[in-house]
Amino acid sequence: MRLPLVILSLFLSSSVSVLAQEFKAPTFVDEVTLPTAFSMNGVRFGGISDLSYDAAAGNYLAIADDRAENGPVRFYRIAVKADKGKIATLDILGMQELLAPGGAHFPLKGADPEGIALDGANKRIFWSSERNEKNVPMLYVADQDGTNAKSITLPDAYIPNADGSKGVLTNLGFEGLDLSADGATLYAMNENGLAQDGGKATIAQESASRLMLLDTQTLAPKAQYIYLTDKIPVAPEKADGWADNGVSAVHAMKDGRLIVVERNFTDGHGFNIRFYIADATGATDVSGMEKVSAAEIKPMAKTPWFSLKDGDNGLKIDNIESIAFGPMLDGKQTMLLASDNNFSPDQASKFTLFTVDIPALH
Question: What does the pLDDT average to over 115-141?
């Protein structure tokens, strides 16, 4: 289905440290906004929480962050065509339900989809659920059409206990998901730290998010590292206002480093999206550690790349939760971002296209 496009201008604010000079700030190409009221086959479109590029098909898989409240647990196929420095078309090619292990439909709140990664060589997908109806996080592997799903056994440290003192905190589980370039490793990163690892980010403290590496053949974890998120950058204007910060997406580069997207929203200030280059080289493998003290281990190195801040140049930056590298455009690597509109009339599904020049991608 071809949609009318709302084209918005976008400018970048960049923050590149001396250590990251090899990573030039991306060049903005174009942006498309889809109305929250749009539906497909009677199902509301939105909640886009992750993208994965299918090079063979020339389109993207886009998972919907929908707990079976607006339609089935699902992902979409989306084609984005750019020409002459603009997005020429954005086509929603189809919608595919993600079925539970055993072939049943997920019940209401039975899954909370956040990440998706295509393993084209093996004709399958990996996807993550932040929580089920019991607030337990899940990782799944399934056929490319979302059927024949199998759950992946997680280390006990991730499983919440009754009093909330252990495991993934509610709605702060697996936000970042991607495959290594060779398809041998699945990367899964929590939005914020486990309860016993210090919990969520605040104005005063960072959060020790765990990055888990899994073997894609055995589906067994093979390493875990700590990625320290930023503190919440700014306090809300009102004492009882909302503020958060955490990992919203990851992308695995060819050299083994990760692009990590940190998303902050603060009442009265809006969104502040920061992109980092993260490296696990030399970091402490915390596999088997039920509880981690960030002061006693070496976390992953992180280097600022660039940022997108709500209000910069009068622009509205929304809830960016997706990153994927797509086809070449005029000899340059493209990077597509997408925002989760939370099915709210006050937000929008935005697809924002850049070109990037990162040596590790070539």
Answer: 96
Torsion of CA 158, 145, 102, 106, to 10 degrees: 70
Please list, residue by residue across 159-192, b when 16 or more beta carbons sit within 10 angstroms of its beta carbon and e when fewer do.
ebeeeeebbbbebbbbbbbbbbeeeebbbbbbbb
| Boundaries of every domain in the chain | 18-361
What confidence tens digit (pLDDT) does each residue in 229-275 have? Answer: 999 999 999 999 999 999 999 999 999 999 999 999 999 999 999 99
Pairing label, strands 59-64, 48-54: antiparallel
- Looking at this protein, which amino acid is placed at residue 285? D
Cβ count within 10 A of residue 203 = 13
Say how far apart CA 1 and CA 307 lie, in whole Å: 32
Phi, then psi, of 157 in degrees rounded to 5: -60, -25
Residue with tokens 């086509």: 91
The H-or-E segment that residue 129 falls in is: strand 124-129
Spell out the CATH class of 18-361.
mainly beta
What burial class does residue 2 get, using C-beta atoms within 10 Å of its C-beta: 0-12 exposed, 13-18 middle, 19+ buried? exposed
